[in-house]
Design brief:
Two copies of one chain form a homodimer. By secondary structure, chain A is α/β, with parallel strands linked by helices. Chain A has two domains: about 1-120, Rossmann fold; about 125-220, Arc Repressor Mutant, subunit A. Chain A contains eight helices and 14 strands. In chain A, strand 1, helix 1 (about 10-20) and strand 2 (about 25-30) form a beta-alpha-beta unit. The interface of A and B includes residues 12, 104, 182 and 183 of A. The first copy, chain A, binds a DNA duplex (30 and 30 nucleotides) through helix 6 and helix 8.
Chain lengths: ~220, ~220
DNA sequence: TTTGCAGGATGAAAATTTTGATAATCGAAG
DNA sequence: CTTCGATTATCAAAATTTTCATCCTGCAAA
């Protein structure tokens, strides 16, 4: 499941991202009207979280333009405005749901979940990078159209790497992401080595290229 | 680690609770000045998150009263006010940190973590219920002063049950809490049976009473 | 009371995750 | 170009988590 978050409050956007990633969604963040405009037409998302008050333009116009193109991804408006008029206007323009700030993340998550249920499940919940294909709905991974068996942690790791593609992420943050537990800092994160290793092995044994680069002293990076 | 959250925005309080619980903290929520006043003197917490604008009184007064009693738990102020004066006043009154809204949860978590590091680690990070003693710092469990070996999931389960003591929690929400993953709904949650079972076994084998009651068709409850 | 079933308990097997030991590699300092 | 210490890779063992099959129990209908 791929989610586009259009929200200029960085803090909020990041906590949404953190929360939803932990739930297995792949999130992308956009902070302005113009960025939104381009992204929204370039890529296919399962769900778009749209803030109404954006620098550079109103969120509703974005939604309007979007629907005019017959894009039919799910759109959830998140807005500080709680006026009935706005809500109605948003829904008229084709938003699927409206959530007023402040909301709590589990609420958002529930809305997304039920939205996804309503929508045709068999959308393009598929990421494809050359020979690698990930079905975010069924949480399965194909290499050269052949399914490979991957564990939960490996899958999480894969998504985390891909979600930060071309960016180096430290062993520590991988560990944090995978453990789902309390900040470790002091703990030892060696299990990351194993997961990285196993993931690489599984992908390459299935004939995949090796996108996972290790950057000495820095961390790992999913290249291209 | 036991955290008291004094915050009247329910949505915010709940998302904080959700996030911190996942990190292994035990959270309690309070929404008003007066409640805060009583709670704060009755119990011992490791950390108090204090909103400044509360129904029934100002948070700073609470903090003042609190310090007057020589209580020295860590206090982190969370406030929508971002004025320097407020920040200074808060810190003068003995707050340990000041976080302006909106913040993101990982930031809060980091602050709590570093605060705990600064404070004397060997506080009363211990919950005691009769023969059962839980050290939230070292994440260890004693029954009749004898340490028992408990796994991460079992520990999480124990804290989740205790954190909701005398309240029935469903198998589903236990599963959600333990898996740290995406909402399942459809998945099968039978592994909860096993964890409940193992936890009960470990506790009773060590001579503990059986506080975990199973409520047919409803879930489980930590009784007293 | 008896019966039938859904929910729950239990234990062992299967799968996954984590740890630990050891080897390989990198990059800085000499 | 070596050497050294720190970081990463690799593999197997240990520990934990999850699944699975089977049994038990509480509840409701007959």
């Amino acid at each position: 499941m791929k989610i586009l978050i259009i929200e200029d409050e960085i803090a909020l956007a990041e906590s949404i991202t953190a929360y939803l990633s932990k739930e297995g969604y792949l999130c992308e963040n956009i902070t302005s009207y113009s960025e939104g405009l381009s992204k929204i037409f370039d890529y296919k998302y399962d769900c778009i979280l749209l803030d109404l008050m954006l620098p550079g333009g109103n969120g509703l116009e974005l939604l309007e333009a979007f629907r005019r193109e017959n894009k039919n991804e799910g759109v959830i408006i998140i807005s500080a405005k709680d006026r009935v008029e706005d809500k109605i206007k948003g829904l008229q323009l084709g938003a699927d749901d409206y959530l007023s700030k402040p909301f709590h993340l589990s609420e958002l998550s529930a809305r997304i979940y039920s939205l996804m249920r309503r929508k045709n499940f068999e959308n393009t919940n598929i990421l494809q990078y050359n020979e690698l294909q990930i079905n975010l709905m069924s949480k399965s991974v194909l290499v050269d159209k052949k399914s490979i068996k991957i564990t939960k942690k490996e899958y999480q790791l894969l998504l985390f790497l891909i979600g930060n593609k071309n960016r180096v992420i430290s062993k520590g943050s991988i560990a944090e992401h995978l453990s789902g537990d309390m900040a470790d800092m002091l703990d030892n994160h060696d299990f990351v080595y194993t997961h990285i290793n196993n993931l690489k092995k599984k992908l390459s044994r299935a004939g995949g290229e090796d996108y996972i680069k290790s950057i000495y002293g820095m961390g790992y990076k999913w290249e291209l």
